UniProtKB/TrEMBL annotation, chains A, B:
Lineage: Bacteria, Pseudomonadati, Pseudomonadota, Gammaproteobacteria, Moraxellales
GO molecular function terms listed in the Swiss-Prot or TrEMBL record: metal ion binding; molybdopterin molybdotransferase activity
UniProt GO cellular component terms: cytosol
Family matches, as InterPro entries: MoaB/Mog-like_dom_sf, MoaB/Mog_dom, MoeA-like, MoeA_C_domain_IV, MoeA_C_domain_IV_sf, MoeA_linker/N, MoeA_linker/N_sf
Annotated GO biological process: Mo-molybdopterin cofactor biosynthetic process
Pathway the protein takes part in: Cofactor biosynthesis; molybdopterin biosynthesis
Job of this protein: Catalyzes the insertion of molybdate into adenylated molybdopterin with the concomitant release of AMP.
Listed name of the protein: Molybdopterin molybdenumtransferase
Catalytic reaction annotation: adenylyl-molybdopterin + molybdate = Mo-molybdopterin + AMP + H(+)
Family stated for the protein in its record: Belongs to the MoeA family.
Gene3D superfamilies the UniProt entry points to: MoaB/Mog-like domain (3.40.980.10), MoeA, C-terminal, domain IV (2.40.340.10), Molybdopterin biosynthesis moea protein, domain 2 (3.90.105.10), Molybdopterin biosynthesis moea protein, domain 3 (2.170.190.11)
Length: 408, 408
């Protein structure tokens, strides 16, 4: 069997991503406190239970004034009290009266405008003078001017960013329906993996994959359980059989090629997983494997088998795991690729490549430049890369051509 | 005193950022396990203790072969054993011999090239035939070809991203010197702040600031301690006096303007803080306050006073707190602004503005578009914003002009 023939049976990057999006079923929905929802996706529309602002209020520190018309410079008003943010008052303003007021404080009944303190002279304890001409309704925030009661604040599918959490908090939202985040097990295969300095022996290598995956989830504020397994059918089978009971997603590294010790795929199929795809026409990360297990309780367990080379694991996490996590949370969306201008020529390759690159803006134009040491067992250029860029197969790329990528 | 006169005494955004970078002293350095260092900054150069690859190895599953010259198609070799990744062998290859080998396995002594399994036929248990012509040194990874022992892997000041942690792990690095992350207290001022539905009463508002700040730090994988304080000199003084003993950074929200109940600044000065700046010519967030306390033990406590309006807090965190946190960790760097093309005209304003915008790529050109509801007490447009964009003061901006911003 020639290498060339094998390549023809592979699916493309876009086909693989499409299969992840189409075949993955969303997890169930749960209601959790808003402050625990960072990066979760809403499973409901959220409507405002209040007006925002909640009441008409002063936008500045100054004086609430009652005046039928526009105020002329040097106009004098009687000062009848004070109102602070967070307070209410029984007093109300009549024509010619004023009250000291602070930013965010509820305006007293009768207020027609606010004079900011910079344009007011205090004549005595009971009188103020407004030194400039002042319009009606100056520096007033009206009840509901930002949001009205019942208005839709956030839509089903919205990701809860820092800003979104703040905005919902301001409207008094404390609990929201979100898509559950999967319980994730990570299985590191390979007898050659030395995890600690003590394990290190001739022929073994240090494991970059477990630290990489742990940090990748930490960056997203999530934890995963990591397992190491020996390269035997029995060990892999015992572990996977156990994990499918309590995890919704199993990520594996290594053991999915066609080597004599690549047991992940045969064991998964033997345990009842159905293959969704195996092998993508890409570099790094060709032997990627994706499968689904339907359980008797109608739930699913997904297995994404990443290759063992750390650069392939990195691409697998950034491109495929990210897409899969979104799909599991109801977001059937492909990666949001930026477009950038390539700063140099690139040789053609028979497979689509993900190259680690340095992206920067020249004026408003995003330009990307490839870094050295792109082989699948090499990672050191990630010290300097800030993007992962797609280079199409079979194309001799020229400087100035437009390519797609993601920031990393 | 007119509003105009006040504006003239304010410093610019760039001046404020420069003062933060110049005046902030880096915290001390500590040695911590690599896997706990996500987003920390290195306080040392890290040199590789090993070669990478650690030993010469096969890049594929196939056969290690000993042949003096290039191999002709149909050449036959004696199969004398097998070597897996993570194993070593006492066997060595002589002219005309081959060993089964797997990706990442250490090549046996005598290996001149690797035949990938796709181009090999197994004739019987003891003989293989290489069906294609094969060069010397094919699919071999040489010891040290990525990194040589003693080579600098990562430089002082490098931020430890997911990829950096993976790359250092692969070289066997387990512990690194990093700049300490500050212990941070957040003080939420304001009697008008209702934190729970039970506190909610007429004149009070829901607090967006504590959830915003908590989520902002969670996004960076960090925690902070949050305190609420009443609007009295005594309460503010008691709390700050306590916090300066054990925190290196105090962030406050509200209470830093010139209102009669704005106690943060006077209390801080009273406790011995020296003002670095107060008031920035920007919108939102004019009354921002930054001060430093030198303690008897030669350490410092910094106080960044953010305004109380949530939009100002958001800008304060993204622009100023982020810069300050970097400076505290030895990174004296200004924000890395992108450049983008404005998609519409904008009216001039007397102060520089940070507008919440939607940024997107048209081909490789980044374009930004302003969203509605930009006032400092409004946050709801953060549901749709993905960038904060600087609009210079006193300039009538035209569609197509280049502006600076950050992604949020």
């Amino acid at each position: 069997m020639s290498g060339c023939g094998v390549e023809h049976s592979l699916i493309s990057v876009d086909q693989a991503l499409k299969l992840i999006v189409e075949k993955t079923q969303a997890l169930s929905v749960e209601s959790i406190p808003l402050q625990q929802t960072l990066n979760f996706y809403l499973a409901e529309n959220v409507y405002s239970p209040i007006n925002l602002p909640l009441f008409s209020q002063s936008a500045v520190d100054g004086y609430a004034i009652c005046a039928k018309d526009e105020i002329e410079a040097e106009a004098v008003f009687d000062l009848i009290g004070e109102i602070r943010a967070g307070q209410t008052t029984d007093l109300f303003l009549q024509q010619g009266q004023a009250m000291r007021i602070f930013t965010g404080a509820k305006i007293p009944v009768g207020t027609t405008t606010i004079a900011r303190q910079e344009i007011v002279d205090l004549l005595d304890l009971n009188q103020i003078k407004v030194i400039e001409q002042l319009k009606q309704h100056a520096d007033l925030r009206d009840v509901g001017e930002e949001i009205a009661i019942g208005q839709c604040l956030a839509e089903h599918g919205q990701q809860l960013s820092v800003g979104a959490i703040a905005a919902l908090s301001m409207a008094g939202i404390q609990q929201v329906q979100v898509y559950q985040y999967p319980k994730i097990a990570v299985v590191i295969t390979g007898d050659e993996v030395a995890e600690t300095i003590e394990d290190f022996a001739s022929g073994q290598i240090f494991d970059a994959n477990a630290p990489l995956i742990r940090a990748w989830f930490a960056q997203r504020n999530q934890q995963v359980d990591i397992f190491h397994v020996a390269d035997t059918v029995e060990a892999v089978k015992t572990l996977l059989h156990d994990l499918i009971k309590s995890y919704q997603l199993i990520l594996t590294t290594g053991g999915i090629s066609v080597g004599d010790y690549d047991f992940i795929r045969p064991v998964a199929l033997d345990l009842g997983f159905e293959q969704i795809f195996w092998k993508i026409k890409q570099k790094p990360g060709k032997p990627m494997f994706f499968a689904e297990l339907s359980k008797v309780d109608q739930t699913h367990c997904y297995l994404l088998g990443l290759p063992g080379n750390p650069a392939a694991v990195y691409v697998g996490m950034q491109i495929y795991t990210a897409t899969l996590l979104n799909a599991l949370q109801g977001q059937k969306q492909l990666p949001q690729w930026f477009q950038a201008r390539l700063s140099h020529d690139l040789k053609a390759d028979t497979r689509e490549r993900f190259l680690r690159m340095s992206a920067h803006f020249e004026q408003e134009n995003l330009t990307v430049k490839s870094l050295g040491k792109q082989q699948s067992h090499m990672l050191s250029n990630l010290m300097h890369a800030n993007s992962l860029v797609r280079i199409p197969a079979h194309e001799q790329m020229q400087a100035g051509q437009i390519v797609q990528g993601i920031f990393i």
